[in-house]
Write a structure and sequence with these properties.
The protein contains 10 helices and 6 strands.
Length: 231
């Protein structure tokens, strides 16, 4: 398992046709085949409610440092791995140790952001120290469990780089605006990777809708700019 990724669970079958049919609820023939212009018109003029008529769900692999950022988007519904029931390291099969996360310099003009990566020698130096620290934390955590401490109490010592998995479900309107916000450069890199992975999948599943979204001049959709760079 790789961290900070998103894979689709499911999406409303024929989602674009469903949205177009519901957008034509007041017409005599809502099932007309052509709908590209209709959906583009709705996006251009801000008729967003029709995009609530189809939904999708994504499985997200990330860490406890990033999942709270995602959970703040309250228009979605979530199910997240619970450390009250399991040890994440036993449930999730990681390709790399979680303490080997990317390290970046603090941005000079933005206290909330970071800039370029630290050089490799500094990564290795900190990772060696983190490996020792992580081993100590895991030993204490397992010892607490062996001695009968509940998981809900023992989890208090686990670091924020602890891996997690969650399912994020919502309607297409909300996903469009989520990627529009979190796909921007201002978003933390790890979260941005997740948003853009969702956006890339939606571009495949909903080509007509996302083509109109990426060509919109709505500033709320600026996070979709990365899609243009892939074309």
């Amino acid at each position: 398992m790789r961290l900070h990724t998103a894979e689709i669970d499911w999406i409303t079958p024929d989602a674009e046709k469903v949205i177009a049919r519901h957008a034509r609820v007041s017409t005599k023939n809502p099932d007309r085949e052509e709908y590209c212009k209709l959906l583009a018109y709705c996006i251009k003029h801000g008729h967003w409610s029709v995009f609530e008529q189809a939904s999708a769900s994504f499985e997200i692999s990330t860490t406890r440092a990033i999942s709270p950022q995602i959970l703040r988007h309250r228009s979605f519904t979530y199910q997240e791995l619970s450390q009250r029931y399991c040890d994440p390291h036993e449930v999730l099969d990681l390709e790399e140790p979680p303490y080997q996360f990317e390290l970046r310099f603090q941005a000079e003009k933005n206290r909330q952001s970071s800039s370029e990566k630290l050089p490799l020698y500094l990564h290795q130096e900190f990772w060696e120290k983190l490996e020792i620290l992580d081993s100590m934390i895991q030993d204490v955590y397992q010892d607490m469990l062996r001695r009968g401490v509940s998981r809900e109490c023992a989890r208090n010592i686990l670091p924020l780089y602890t891996p997690s998995r969650l399912h994020m479900a919502g309607n297409i309107r909300n996903f469009i605006h989520y990627v529009g916000l979190r796909g921007r450069e201002e978003t933390q890199l790890e979260h941005r990777k997740i948003a853009r992975a969702i956006g890339q999948t939606l571009a495949w599943e909903l080509p007509v809708i996302i083509d109109a979204v990426k060509n919109s001049d709505d500033p709320a959709l600026a996070g979709w700019e990365f899609i243009k760079q892939k074309v």
